[in-house]
Amino acid sequence: CCLIPGIPGMSENIRVIRIIDRYLEHGRVFLFNNNGGQDLFLGSADWMNRNIYSRVEVCFPIHNAAMKQELIKMLHYQLNDNQQAVLIDEYSKNVPVGVAQQDEAIQSQKMIAYLLNDKPVA
Asked: In the chain, which ranges are continuous DSSP H helix?
């Protein structure tokens, strides 16, 4: 990741999370809070020079409300993963997230698999 989080005046509001688990996929989901609403987009590739300048890539909005809510739910699982996730700090070091005593264990890929198979999240 070329993005460096935690730099005052530039990226202090940005977190970089890496999840290594059974499935090696990584989504290209972009969620923007816009004037009280949420705009959700999916993209076809990483935003890297080799992809943007050498291929045809697309980014498109999700308008269907049910699909949008399901994707946002998946994104929240990933952002709150405390089993397989690590935070990347301003020095590109892995910082374990871990489970606080009062937190429930959240393994995002497992929860997403349950969601996609219409099973209750356990």
From this structure: 49-52, 65-79, 108-116
Cβ neighbourhood burial of 89 (10 Å; 0-12, 13-18, 19+): middle
Phi, psi of 79 (to 5 degrees): -70, -20
Over residues 25-62, the pLDDT tens digits come to 777 899 998 898 999 999 887 777 777 788 777 889 99
CA-CA distance, 81 to 76, in Å (whole number)?
A: 8
Asked if residue 82 lies in contact with residue 106, where contact means CB atoms within 8 angstroms, the answer is: yes
Which of 100, 85, 82, 111 lies closest to 16 in space, CA to CA? 85
Is pTM beyond 0.85 here? no
> Are 111 and 121 contacting, i.e. CB atoms less than 8 angstroms apart?
yes
